[in-house]
Amino acid sequence: MAIIHDAKDQFYSYAKEFLGAELEQLLDSDDKKDEFYSLCKKFSEIPLNAPKFKDPKTGRVEGCFQYKDMDSAKEATVEFVKKYNIHNLDAFMESIHRLHGHAVEWDDARVKSGFVQAESYNYNGGFFGTYYNFQCLPDDVWEDICKEIIEAINKK
């Protein structure tokens, strides 16, 4: 088993399990691995930078995703795909989707994942609530970003 020194090592260790053959061959050098890590980090910045607020009635936590973070991730993805001539775009995007939540530094103060209960929650019973992982993008936001990335790649 490899010794993990930092978040980047942990990311690479986790990535080995999920990368397809094309991406594994692509990431054959440290420079390429660092670029892929930075790309995934841009996607993790979207939910981490989103201001979060809690609806006091329902207890649901919502985030306001910022266009500048989404645009930065989209541009970096288009550049990466073109630079390395990636053909299997679906597999590539799926890899980013699975891995972007792991491209977060261990001591990042913006990570405040956990369970949230409604204001009327009775703490005498068991522990119930909704789990929020602020390191990962919600599926609906992810799907919108993917559509825009694919459109941008097909345009150029």
Please provide a brief summary of the model:
It is built from 6 helices and 4 strands; from the N terminus they run αααββααββα. With 156 residues, the protein is mostly helical.
Q: Give the SSE string.
A: HHHEEHHEEH
Helical amount among residues, as a percent range? 40-55%
Residue-averaged pLDDT: 78
Q: If strands are numbered along the chain, what order do they take across the biggest sheet?
A: 1-2
What is the number of helices?
Answer: 6
Characterize the main sheet: 2 strands, antiparallel
Principal-axis shape equals globular
Number of E-type strands: 4
**What is the CA-atom radius of gyration, in angstroms?**
18 Å
Strand content: 5-15%
- Tally of distinct domains: 1
* Uncertain segments: none
Q: Structural class, from helix and strand content?
A: mainly alpha
N-C termini distance:
43 Å
